[in-house]
Amino acid sequence: TMPKEPAVLRQNILDTTAAILACGIDPKKCFVFRQSLVPEHAELAWILGCLTNVPRLLRLPQWKMKRASQNSEGTVGLLTYPVLQAADILLYKSTRVPVGEDQVLHLELAQDIAQHFNKKYGEFFPVPKAILSEL
Question: Does the keyword section mention Ligase (predicted)?
């Protein structure tokens, strides 16, 4: 949600990919891809953003904390990032999502968006459930 120098962004992508592979993810068994190369993520985020009200996003604690750290000038990208997260989850019709405690409210937003979409347009998205780690 913050502008990055192109060279730094490219290096971050490579470093993250290396870390994922170093953790033992086997690319022969799992799809490893760069989200920004899949336009459906942004397209679904737009659609879901049109179904999500701003007051709900403004109540999320991550928005409040990060906005405070940006001298009260939070960006639209920061505000709508949880909708993109919901699109990332719902695009693949995920039923279980590993999350940390700090992301539970974002997953609840994804659940609410899925339920709202399904009520309006018919059953399409499963409502994802959290997998919380004890760590």
Answer: yes
